[in-house]
Design a protein that fits this description.
The complex is a heterodimer of chains A (450) and B (218). Chain A has 450 residues and is mainly beta. In chain A, 11% of the residues lie in helices and 40% in strands. Classes of the chains: A mainly beta (450), B alpha+beta (218). Chains A and B meet through β9 and β17 of A and α6 and β3 of B.
Chain lengths: 450, 218
């Protein structure tokens, strides 16, 4: 049971939904010459260990801080979708020694305990993770926290949550991260906004009140590149916002040319973007240190935009339109681009908005399936294509730094907003409840005091 | 009836509108021509009244043209010509009507099929008419704005809108109009004409808009 989350289905319900949606669509209308790929939702959640999170111990004056930490930790570990969160009876208080037998009887596989000590300005949170099955303290670490009212407090606790995830699973978490997105104002203009991974702290970052789209986090988490177009259309440029200073600078621009869809190379040294010229729209890259943009694609495919770079920094995927409708292609260096969204050939074919997984070879994108946009995942070689959504119109997916969650915009439930999907369990939660939020981009893991 | 009296009667009708019609059972006797004193001494000059009435029509016509209601503007100018021949407004009206025709030809939208940027036969004949006008007015420049319906993705629609704008530009340049006279922009799906969510609205929204950059040259 996960009583805190109103959005997701119960495990049993999820399984039922998964089998109902086992086969959703095959879009290829023509016969022998087209490869037919079956596309279905197949979430098969495996073993999910139970985790018990005891209250943070502290002295009375700091009980409020400890309680704030309790809530953030519990929600983060729930949102990680890697654990069954165990309800702990109030009577069960931590003793001098952990009673592994008792926790084992309660069904816990993992046990989180913590102590908060404050001396002067310094708050130290000591957190331990116990392996209940083996009866050992697996990891323990002391984290320095800023004051509870300081802007970095929540993010510091999110990093504790990510440490617990990594101790238990050996994989990175995504609690200490943010999502940037475009929000449309009532007057039809747009600006860039940002929200924490748990939906807290949404705030406006730019004040252009213009056509401002496609934010992309730099790997350092300190910068966001985005598309700027003036309301009259006479200016179009790629800007880079320095978050701490709140200042934007132009990375690329020029009259009578459209500048679209910036993204960073994984090492942060280059920004790739799309630029239109008389011959069509192509992918360019520009060094962040300056210099003239260089072209990466050639015009055999039209309307090329939306680049996303592989972790190797060499391959990149993009949207292009060689077969009459936009599709997803992968290009390795200067080799010929390979079509990877093959299943959608035919009248209903339309695939855009690819995002390359930060950890592996999987690419998510949006594709029209039976007249409606859905989120699809595929390997970079075009294999193992799988439908991830089936309800409502779902668009603009972006991977979390843990490589398993995806943020996207959707009108599911009758109200447009940003949603987070766990690609392993299929669980979905609401991130922002504003129907004018679009084009989300999930940051990398945010380190340091941000 | 002498021309002055006729003008005065018309001017009176224009000035007082319907208030004089039929409500009075005993209409005041129409003044005979002989009784009318010299126009210069008292009462408005009928020619001035006609001039004023025509000027009002011209002003309304200009305002309608500014709003883009070209049909109304054309009707008002025609009315000025037929009712107040000889006035300043009426003398300029035919040139204004021609100017409206030119503006309307230049501004006429072209439309596209879903996810396509190819020009239809209808679009080609619209563009041919534009080319004629552009040849006659060599100082006119156009901004061509490509637009899409709401069904595609935000980002892709910007590229598609640009392709639609460039399709029109390329055709006009191919007809020999100087490339420097066009600017192309794309608004993706951000500027729908019709906010509806149906085939009719989508068809209307898949379009190129043509914005005249220096109207004064016409």
């Amino acid at each position: 049971m996960r009583p805190r989350s109103p959005v997701h289905l119960s495990r049993c319900g999820r399984r039922a939904a998964a089998s109902l949606l086992a086969v959703i669509a095959t879009a290829s209308a023509s016969q022998a010459q087209e490869e037919e790929v079956r596309l279905g939702i197949t979430y098969r959640p495996g073993y999910v260990p139970a985790i018990a999170i005891t209250r943070i111990e502290t002295e009375a004056p700091y009980a409020v801080v400890a309680s704030a930490i309790d809530s953030i930790l519990a929600r983060d570990l729930d949102y990680s979708d890697r654990f069954e969160i165990l309800a702990i009876p109030d009577s069960l208080r931590r003793g001098a020694a952990v009673n592994y037998g008792l926790w084992n009887q309660l069904g816990a596989v993992w046990l989180v305990e913590g102590t908060l000590t404050v001396s002067g300005e310094q708050a130290i949170l000591r957190v331990g993770l116990h392996d209940v099955v083996y009866g050992v303290l697996k990891e323990v670490r002391a984290f320095t926290l800023p004051a509870v009212a300081a802007p970095g407090f929540r993010m510091a606790v999110h990093r504790v949550s990510d440490a617990v995830v990594e101790w238990a699973t050996g994989e990175p978490g995504m609690a200490a991260s943010r999502v940037a997105y475009s929000r449309r104002a009532a007057d039809g203009t747009w600006d860039i906004w940002m929200v924490d991974s748990d939906g807290e702290g949404a705030r406006r970052l730019t004040r252009h009140s213009a056509l401002v789209f496609s934010p992309a986090f730099a790997p350092d988490g300190l910068h966001i590149a985005y598309q700027y177009q003036s309301n009259s259309g006479d200016q179009s440029a790629i800007y880079e916002l320095e978050l701490a200073a709140g200042r934007s600078r132009q990375v690329a621009g020029g009259a009578d040319r459209l500048h679209l869809t910036p993204t960073y190379a994984p090492d942060g040294s280059r920004i790739l973007f799309a630029r239109s010229s008389q011959g069509g729209t192509e992918i360019f890259e520009v060094a962040r240190s300056g210099g003239a943009p260089t072209r990466l694609t050639s015009t055999t495919i039209g309307d090329i935009l939306g680049p996303t770079v592989a972790p190797d920094g060499r391959r990149f995927a993009f949207t292009g339109s060689a077969v009459g409708a936009p599709q997803i292609y992968v290009q390795d260096g200067s080799d010929r681009p390979q079509l990877i969204s093959r299943f959608v050939r035919g009248a209903d074919s339309y695939a855009t908005s690819a995002d390359w997984n930060p950890l592996d070879d999987r690419i998510v994108f949006q594709s029209r399936v039976q007249g409606q946009f859905q989120i699809v995942v595929v390997r970079a070689d075009g294999s193992e294509m799988r439908l991830l959504t089936a309800e409502g119109r779902n668009e603009d997916p972006s991977w979390a730094p843990d490589g398993r969650h995806v943020v996207f915009s959707s009108d599911r439930g009758g109200y447009r907003g940003l949603w987070v999907l766990d690609t392993i369990t299929g669980r979905v939660r609401s991130l922002t409840r504003n129907h004018q939020d679009q084009l989300p981009d999930w940051s990398g893991a945010l380190r340091g005091d941000r | 009836m002498r021309p002055t009296a006729r003008c005065a009667a018309i001017a009176g009708l224009v000035l007082f509108g319907l208030t004089a019609c039929g409500s009075n059972p005993e209409p005041e006797p129409e003044p005979t021509v002989d009784e009318v004193p010299a126009a210069t001494d008292s009462g408005p000059d009928p020619a001035e009244l006609a001039e004023a009435a025509a000027r009002s029509l011209c002003e309304q016509a200009e305002e309608a043209a500014r709003r883009g209601d070209y049909d109304l503007a054309r009707r008002l100018y025609n009315e000025a010509m037929s009712e107040y021949a000889g006035t300043t407004c009426a003398r300029g009206a035919s040139a204004e009507i021609e100017r409206i025709d030119v503006i309307q030809t230049l501004e006429e939208r072209i439309h596209f099929a879903f996810d396509r940027a190819e020009l239809s036969d209808a679009s080609v004949s619209i563009l041919n008419r534009k080319a004629d006008v552009l040849r006659r007015y060599p100082d006119v420049r156009l901004t061509i704005e490509g637009n899409c319906d709401e069904r595609g993705s935000i980002e892709y629609n910007f590229a598609l809108g640009m392709r639609r704008a460039q399709a029109a530009k390329n055709y006009l340049v191919g007809l020999g109009i100087g490339e420097g006279r066009f600017r192309t922009v794309s608004f993706g799906k951000e500027r729908p004409l019709d906010p509806g969510h149906n085939e009719e609205a989508w068809a209307l929204n898949r379009r190129d808009e043509f914005v005249i950059e220096n109207l004064g040259a016409i």
